[in-house]
Amino acid sequence: MNKKLGIDVIVPTFGETYELAEKVEMVNKVERKVTKTLRLDILERLEKLKEEMKDMDTYVRQDLHDVNLRDEDIFRINEKIKDLEKQILKVIEG
């Protein structure tokens, strides 16, 4: 005697709507699509970041060649670059 007890378990995903009657059934599903505009925005941001990285490289190198730069300033620059590395890794790793 293999009689099922209880109700089936359904885990809905984003955008799904279910109705409970004699049986559970999906009545609506919203599809999410990434627009080409969003893809282009991402590519534009990447290009902007490249330019900003070039600028940062120039300014940091100038600062490091400054003989009046204090040890505290060098430490601060180093910590900020470490933070930036971590943020980049988070984006890459997802």
Describe the model.
The structure is a single chain. The protein is mainly alpha-helical and 94 residues long. It has a domain at 49-93. It is 56% helix and 12% strand. The protein has a two-stranded antiparallel ribbon. The protein starts with 15 loop residues before the first strand and ends with a helix.
What tags apply to this protein structure?
single chain; 94 residues; mainly alpha; two-stranded antiparallel sheet; 2 strands
Question: What's the helix and strand layout?
Answer:
Elements: E1 16-20, E2 24-29, H1 36-65, H2 71-93
Antiparallel strand pairs: 1-2
What is this structure, in a nutshell?
With 94 residues, the chain is mostly helical. The protein has helices at residues 36-65, 71-93; strands at residues 16-20, 24-29.
Shape by Cα distribution: elongated
- How is the largest sheet built, in terms of strand order? 1-2
Rounded to the nearest angstrom, the radius of gyration is 27 Å
Annotation, overall tally of beta strands: 2
Structural class: mainly alpha
Secondary-structure element order, N to C: EEHH
Number of helices: 2
- Biggest beta-sheet profile: 2 strands, antiparallel
The rounded distance between the terminal residues' Cα atoms is 49 Å
Q: What are the segments in which pLDDT stays under 50 over at least 5 consecutive residues? A: none
Q: What's the overall average pLDDT, rounded?
A: 84
Portion in strands: 5-15%
> In which range does the helix fraction lie?
55-70%
